[in-house]
Amino acid sequence: MFENLTERLERSFKILKGEGKITEINISETLKDIRRALLDADVSYKVAKEFCDRVKQKAIGQNVLTAVRPQQMMVKIVHDELAEFMGSEHQEINIKGNPAVVLIAGLNGSGKTTFSAKFALNIKSKRGMKVLLAACDAFRPAAIEQLKTLGGQVDVPVFSIEGESDPVKIATAAIAQAKKDGISVVIVDTAGRLAVDQELMDEISAMKQATNPTETLFVVDAMTGQDAVETAKAFNDRLDFDGVVLTKMDGDTRGGAALSIKAVVGKPIKFVSTGEKMEALDIFYPARIADRILGMGDVVSLVEKAQEQFDEKQARELKKKLARDQFTINDFYKQLQQVKKMGNIKDLAGMLPGVGKALKDVDIPDDAFKMTEAIIQSMTPYEKDHPECLNGSRRRRIAAGSGTTLADVNKLIKQFEGSRKMMKMAATGALQQQLKNFRR
């Protein structure tokens, strides 16, 4: 996401390169270019102009330190304003209640039902709370079946009433059932329409009044750009929702909706959906998104994703194995699975400063590890635990069994050996440091 905007802003800052200080004259061309970059990113003219005016006001008259070039100072000012425009600080979701009720609203095709399931998984896995999904979309054919399928994938129960077409009755019955079963959070998936109409607004307003939700979230497709902002405004005027969820952010290289919604609607973006997997849901942190837009990466989010998949017991066992030089292909495979759970490899790499730009034209598919997994799965349990036994004939059999070539198998074994060597060096270094600290 934001690939085009990142590239355009980098070009804009280069205009100031070589300048001794920021003045109204030398900043004007930079700001013109930034405004054009924002407009190309599908940000409305009014928002783009207001943004540039604020940057200009802050930039002119800045005391530029001798150690900081005007170009660097401008990047800092733009970064801070981007974060401010998108909401400055992350706004927490309110899921306190008995039960807490979260009402999900939006148009058809925006991703409401998928988000409902992703959000249920997020609450269950990260907060340890019991969740119930309420299937209240009686308008769209197969909507209830879709939610039941997704609920099954995330192991969250789905409440529905067969033959009932009144969403208010379904929602109130779901809340009553949640109270009875001691469930902490009820997520109410509502019906949408192809466009904003009076019938939809009346229905969603009645749902809000009947359920008295602790949180109302508006779900919108980020790829619709300025249309997303206008739809959010129309819903907010009637619903007064608490926050926005941007879906399909992985397919949006412009980012206009993310940059405009808070400025136009006045409501914070709380979540972004970045893929089809049920785990592909991220909390929206304005400052971190500003980092990514300006090509600075997002190491904090990368570390958090790694910590989510980190198994402390498994890590201790792995450390012992490395110390005894017993790291096997089975261990290598387990590490691979943990990396896969973190998300799309290209997105993860893009969180490292400078790497996103380097990978701009590189295609890294979601199934990048598929061949590696096939090769490892074609090995016998003994071969996985004793990689030193992998002679030529065994390697040829593994290649045939995995549908790969001998060269592919050799390459994987070489990668495994390299990983084992590097991990052993890291573990040995850490052990030596601990001994030094102990002696002190």
Overview features:
440 residues; Four Helix Bundle (Hemerythrin (Met), subunit A); 434 Repressor (Amino-terminal Domain); 9% strand; 8-stranded mixed sheet; 57% helix; 20 helices; alpha/beta; Rossmann fold; 3 domains
If you consult CATH, what is the topology of the largest domain? Rossmann fold
Extract low-pLDDT stretches. Answer: 430-435
**Rg over C-alpha atoms, rounded to the nearest angstrom:** 26 Å
Annotated CATH architecture of the largest domain: 3-Layer(aba) Sandwich
Count of helices? 20
Order of helices and strands: HHHHEHEHEHEHEHEHEEHHHHHHHHHH
Main sheet specs: 8 strands, mixed
Number of beta-strand segments: 8
Number of domains: 3
Text of the CATH class of the largest domain: Alpha Beta
Mean of the pLDDT scores?
A: 80
Distance between the termini: 49 Å
Strand order of the largest sheet: 3-2-4-1-5-6-7-8
Helical proportion, percent range: 55-70%
CATH superfamily of the largest domain: P-loop containing nucleotide triphosphate hydrolases
Q: Structural class given helices, strands, pairing?
A: alpha/beta
Rough outline: flat
* Strand content range: 5-15%
Question: Your description of this structure?
Answer:
The chain has three domains: 3-85, Four Helix Bundle (Hemerythrin (Met), subunit A), CATH 1.20.120.140; 100-294, Rossmann fold (3-Layer(aba) Sandwich), CATH 3.40.50.300; 303-439, 434 Repressor (Amino-terminal Domain), CATH 1.10.260.30. It has 20 helices and eight strands. It has helices at residues 3-14, 24-40, 45-59, 70-85, 112-127, 143-153, 167-181, 198-211, 226-239, 256-265, 286-293, 299-309, 312-323, 329-341, 345-350, 355-358, 370-377, 381-385, 392-402, 406-439; strands spanning 100-105, 131-136, 158-159, 185-190, 215-221, 243-247, 269-273, 281-283. An eight-stranded mixed sheet has the order 3-2-4-1-5-6-7-8, with helices on both faces. Helix 5 (112-127) packs parallel to helix 6, helix 9 (226-239) packs parallel to helix 10 and helix 19 packs across helix 20. The two termini are 49 Å apart.
